[in-house]
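This section describes the prediction task in plain terms. A model, or a person checking by hand, is given the sequence of a single protein chain and must write out its three-dimensional structure as a string of tokens. No templates, partner chains or ligands are provided. The sample shown here is typical of the held-out split.
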Amino acid sequence: MQNADVKIRLELSKYAKKIVDKGLVVGPGGNISAIRGDTMYISPSGFALEEIEPDQWVPVSVKTGEILDMTFRPSSEVLMHLYCYRARQDMTAIVHTHPPYCIALSLVANELPTLFPDQAALVGDLTFVPYVLPTTDLLADAVAAKVPEFTSIILENHGLVTVGKNLREAYYRTEVVEESSKIYLIAKSVGNPKVLTEEEYKEIASLESEAYRVELLQKMK
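The expected answer:
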């Protein structure tokens, strides 16, 4: 196994554990992947994320969909990951989780306004996909159609998909979207939440400090 392969596998296991520690999935739910060159490394089917050892991530050809090591089956959402990478080639990591507040929000609303600076800077605009049967090519097509424009996609009655230039960026987008959903639901339960205006949103996006922070996030592991 080459050093680059070892590195990406170790990184996947690191963020898989973070996802579980933060309560963003339960049991064998969720799946994550990252690519190096034309190879995607994705979580194996039937494993809880925290159980996956570095050598158990399944390599799959992004171009052909061929499973390059048949020791374990890839996640049942393998098509969604493949289609997203093919649709948006500037991204190298995908995090699909089942965050409770995101799912709760999707049951009662189809929007998540921009509420605070971190959300504006790290997530930006996000979108919703109506419920589609999981693990199907219909879901893969629906998510891939949104990926060129959005980096965070809430799947109604299902979960959340985030993409990033690396796993760190995709993972922190997941955290921020879940926190945003939590804040919005709490605020909505007691009143009418004050959201950032378009002008306030653009002001945050234009801050040099925020641009630097996003750039650093994309570079770091």
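For orientation: The two ends are 20 Å apart (CA to CA).
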